[in-house]
Amino acid sequence: VPRTLRPGESQLGVTLRRMYCWTTEARQKLRLMATAIAKVQEGSGGGTVLSTISTLVDDGDPFIQSFAKRLLKTASAPFNHILVSWVTDGELVDPYKEFFIRERESRRDMFWSEKYTVASDMIPVHISGDMTRKIFQIGRSLNFLRVACDDAQWVAEGGPRTQLTGDISDTSDLEAFVYRSSSMVNERLMSVLRDKFDLMGHIEAIRRYLLFEQGDFALALMEVLENQMDRSGRSVMAHDLSAVLSSATRSSNAQHENPDRLSAIVLTFQEEGTKNRGWNEVTLTYNLSAPLSYVIPRSTMRQYFEVSHFLLRLRRIEHSLHTIWRHQMTESRAYLRSEELQRRKGTARDGDKQADPLRQAMRQSSIACSEMIQFFHQVQRYIALNVIEGAWGEFIESTKEEIDIDSWNDAHSKYVDVIHEVVCGGSGPGFQRNLSGIFETTLRFISAVKELYNEQALSARRATSGAGAPAKENRESLSERLMRLRTSGNLFGSGQAAADPATEHASQVRSTILRFKEQVKDIMRVLSHNTTSDLQFLVVTIDFNGTYTASA
Questions:
Q1: Which of 40, 315, 422, 532 is the most exposed place for a label (fewest CB within 10 A)?
Q2: How far is the C-alpha of 211 from the C-alpha of 311, rounded, in Å?
Q3: DSSP element (H, E) containing 268
Q4: pLDDT tens digits, residue range 236-272?
Q5: pTM: predicted TM-score of the whole model, two decimal places
C-alpha cells in the first residue's frame, strides 16, 4: 500500500484489473504490430504489409486510426524510397522484392513489352488501379529513354524529378505527382520516337513499299523480277536480290526516299532454310532498327511480312497477265496484217487446217486473259483502297491526340490486324486461302498461252520454210515438247494427251479457262454470303456485266 495517496488513488494499490487497464493501449499497439509482422513471416512483405496497415487507417477507433497512420508512415519508408527511384530515374532498386514491379530476363527485341511486369498481389490498397498503371508506365518509359533512346540527360535534368515537391507518403500528393509526371514522360517519349527515330516515317514507308501503295516502285520491281525469272534457273544468291532491289529503287521515285527508310527495305526469301531457292520464293521485308524494333512487336512485323508476300504474288501474276495481253495484241495485229496481205495477193495460206484450232485457242485465251486481268485488278483495288487505305485512315485519326506508347501500339496493332485478317484470314477464310487455287490456275494458263504462241510461231515458220532440214528440226523440237507434255500428264488428270502439239496446247488453254471460271464462281459465292458491304460490292464489280451469274 503506498504511504501517500494521490487524489483519486485507492488504498488497494496495484491489481490485475488496474494492470489490464494500464496496458490496454500498449497491448493494442502490439496486436497491430503483430498483425504486420505475421504478414512478413508469411513471406509477403512490401505492398501486402502496407495494405494490411492501410485497412486499419480507416478503422472507427480513433486510437487505432492514429497509431495505424504513424505505423504506415514508418513502414512505407522503404517502399517510398523504391517508388521515388522508379518514377524519377526509371531504376528499380528492390533487392528484397518488396515493390509491386518486377524485372525479368527477356529477349532484346522484347525490351519494351516484357522487361518489366506488375505483381498485382503486391499493390498496396491505397494505390488505385489507374495510378498503378501510370506508375508502371512512368518508370518503364524513363528506363527506355535512358537505355534504348540514349536520353539519360533529360531524365536526370528535366524529368519527373523536377516535379517532386511534396511528400509522396501522402496519398493525395503522390497522386498529383504521378499524374503530372505521367503526362510529361509520355509526351517526351513519343516526341523522341517520332522526331529522333522517325517512328511514323517508318510506318509510312512500310505501307508504301511492303504493302505496295507506291505504284511506280511496285511496277519497277515487277519488271525487274520478270526479267530475272526469264534467265537461267540457277539458285538465287544474296547479291542477286540486292541488285534487283537496287534496280527497282533507281527506276522509281523510291530513289528520293529517306536513306534510313530505304536501307530498311530488304528483298529476301519467304523461308530462309529452303534449298534450291528460286525467284518464286522471293518476298519483301522491312528491318526496323533499335529502339523501334523494341516497341513494335515481332508478331506485328510477321503479319506485315505475310501480307507483303501475298500482295507481291498478286502483283506478279497481274503483271504477267499484262505481259501476255500485250503479246496477244501484237500477235493479233500482225496476224490481221498478214491476212490482209494474203487476201490482196489472192494466195492461200499453207497450214490453215493446223492454224484453225490455234487461232480459235488464241482468241479464247485473249478473252480469258482480259477477264483474269479484270478479276485481279478488282481484288487488288479492293485491298488497296477499301482495306489498307481505310485502316490507315482510322489509324492516323486515332493517333492524332497525345497518347502514350502503349495506346499508340494498340492502335497500330489494330491497323495491322484488320489488313491481315482480310488478306491472310487470321481467324477465317481470307483472300490468301480463297485465291490460292486461282493463283495456280492462272499460272498454268500463262504457261499454256506461252506454249500456244510458241507453237503458232513454229507453225508460221513451217508454212514459209517448206520441206527440208529446218522442218525436220522443227518436227524434232515439237516431238520433244509433246513428249514433255505427255509425261507431265494432263492438267487436271482427265483425258488423254492430244495427237499433235497444236491440239494439245489448245485443249490445255481451254481446260485452264474453264477451271478459272469455276473457281471465280466459287469465290463469288463465298463473298456474297459475307455481311460486309464492301465485300458484297466487290462481287458486283467482279461480275459487273453478269458473265459469271449468267453461266452459273
A1: 532
A2: 7
A3: strand 265-269
A4: 677 778 888 898 999 899 899 999 999 999 888 776 5
A5: 0.79
